[in-house]
Amino acid sequence: MAKLKKQDIKVYKALQGELKRQQEGMELIASENYVSPAVLEALGSVFTNKYSEGLPGKRYYGGQKYTDVVESLAIERAKKLFGAEHANVQPLSGAPANMIAYSAVLSPGDTVLGMDLSHGGHLTHGHPVTLSAKIYRFVRYKTDASGLIDYDELEKMAISEKPKLMLAGFSAYTRQIDYKKFTDIAQKVGAITMFDIAHIAGLIAGKAIPNPVPYFDIVTTTTHKTLRGPRGGMIMCKEKYAQAIDKAVFPGFQGGPHMNNIAALAVALGEALKPAYKTYAKQIIKNAKVLEQELKKYGFKLMFGGTDNHMILADVFSSKGATGKETEKVLDEIGITINKNMIPDDPRKPMDPSGVRIGVPAITTRGMKEKEVRLIAGWINKAIENRENKKFLGELKKEVIKLCKKFPLPK
Ligand code: DSN
């Protein structure tokens, strides 16, 4: 960092501040992780200088000998890891990947069934504020009173709404989807199937949960959540949709791919193919289960009844008397980063909802296991219950820093 320090002290200082924040604090945002130094090296490499519109072997500009190598590696590794027939590694992130996938198979006005945001879905799955909802007709399904997807209801909806596309996937839903039931319904009504696996891609890659890729026509993902790669997106699909997806990425939606990200993605996918990654993915599930049990013990109300994946969604307002915003703030004060989150049909507003989402992929990367998760759950509970007591919070922060120093970022 010597050159950055000499040339731009303001950016350098912000970077050092962020490094310290990550080292001494604990990331429990379910969609975040810590990449390896090898991924960081590829990300900060000269590949960022290159324009590479097109695909390996079929580019619009010269000088592609090495970009072709890294993009081909990323594609082959993605296909191998997920058992995909086709992969496009150029989407810049998850929201563009979803928009691109819609545009590849839908015409304006077509109907899509997607999961409601407050029930765990994602903004890009048809929330009225998004561009996709202005172009397509989204109908949103919800979870039932038990917190699960009611497949009989979903089937009734599919029969009456006649969607062109049925979309599975979520950003705060914590239970396993029944891939077969979902795709059987789609088959009955002649809908194309799509799964946005952004949150659970790493759990699938590490074989900690079943792989949906063989079941679905199109699968989109980000690459930086449980998958532990650089920020970016990917679309995998059946061969039948390969050409439509590739064309929808470029020239349909994007310009030049970010080759430094793609090089870093190739490295991350290489890591995910190693045996140690399976151990990591399984540990995430174990850690999340312990978090679920501990928080239940402390009286937290968990949405959807608990978790089958890497995160929990808790209604802190009804169970602890603190809003999501207050909880996020008090945990920030002790160095634990989480995010406020809507709960199903939340009567409160998105900027100060009833819930919080807590995920364990990042702390699991640091090597924390069940014992540490028990400690953390206790701190979360104590911090919320003593949120007015600044002195007590200060003491808790010291405990958090001590634990973080024992479990450094990947080296
Ligand atoms: N922002 C991501 C998340 O936190 O789930 C999804 O877009």
Give an overview in words.
- The protein has 411 residues and is α/β, with parallel strands linked by helices.
- It folds into two domains: 40-272, Type I PLP-dependent aspartate aminotransferase-like (Major domain) (Aspartate Aminotransferase, domain 2, 3-Layer(aba) Sandwich); 279-406, Aspartate Aminotransferase, domain 1.
- The chain has helices at 2-7, 9-24, 37-43, 65-82, 94-105, 131-135, 151-161, 179-189, 201-205, 239-253, 259-272, 275-297, 316-320, 324-333, 361-365, 370-385, 390-406; strands at residues 26-27, 54-55, 58-59, 86-88, 111-115, 137-141, 165-169, 192-196, 218-222, 233-237, 301-302, 311-315, 336-337, 339-341, 355-359.
- Strands 4-10-9-8-7-5-6 form a seven-stranded mixed beta sheet, with helices on both faces.
- Strand 7 (165-169), helix 8 and strand 8 form a beta-alpha-beta unit.
- The two termini are 16 Å apart.
- The mean pLDDT is 97.
- The site of D-serine has 4 residues, from loops.
